[in-house]
Design brief:
- The protein has 248 residues and is α/β, with parallel strands linked by helices.
- It has helices at 11-21, 43-59, 74-81, 90-97, 111-116, 118-122, 137-142, 147-158, 180-191, 200-210, 228-237, and strands spanning 2-6, 27-31, 64-67, 86-87, 104-109, 128-133, 168-171, 195-197, 219-223, 244-247.
- It has 11 helices and 10 strands.
- Strands 4-3-1-2-9-10 form a 6-stranded parallel beta sheet, with helices on both faces.
- Helix 2 packs parallel to helix 3 and helix 8 (147-158) runs parallel beside helix 9.
Amino acid sequence: MIGFFDSGSGGLSVLSQFRKWAPEAGVVYFGDINNAPYGEKTPEELEALTMLGVDVLRQRGATALVSACNSVSTSILAGASGELPFVEMTIPTAQYMKQFRGKRFLLLATPATVASGIYSRALEGVVMLDTLGIPGLAGAIEFGESDEKVSSVLAEALTQKAGEKYDGIILGCTHYPLALPALAPVIYASFGELAVIDPGEPVAAAAADAFKSEDGGAMRFYISKESDAFRARLKALFPDGSYTVEVI
């Protein structure tokens, strides 16, 4: 079973891509909604929560991990994963971004992701990277705020980059692709038409290549707090309903 770990719904954007590459893989997913969002927590808090989350997945049969939370740095994940192999967000993204070598990109991410420097290190020598940590955006998406609210949080944050020129945007939080219909118009209004990169795509491809699983496509979801928004996203992304959800 392939274990997916996230602070809540964000990892579903990666899982939906993974399903295209590995439809028969068995998946066990833990969304730590009770402690969401992770993007404004300290490294010490993230380390403790990651240890607990990985343990949840290990106890439920995970034999490999996909960290679908950008706020959890590689060093934290490596310490928590123990013997389990894992794929994280930045290395596959850096490989994918080589096609844009020398271009200038803006990373939109949580404050914790920006502070960790994981994308700056991974993309050094690949693209010129500017970063913007956005408090509150992942939480607004996680807890089902209106499109208008989500758009306004991003629009206010982007005023800090007014007048800047970029070749593209990197969505450095897995929650952001879930709200792309609300976010994309704000991005284009700020910077014009440009590439918008979802790291979930290369990460999903890397995970499908690294981990072979033939469990008939079974999917089991565990969440640490009941969430109508999470269940609604599951239904939208996997409308056949071939999964189970349990609050733990």
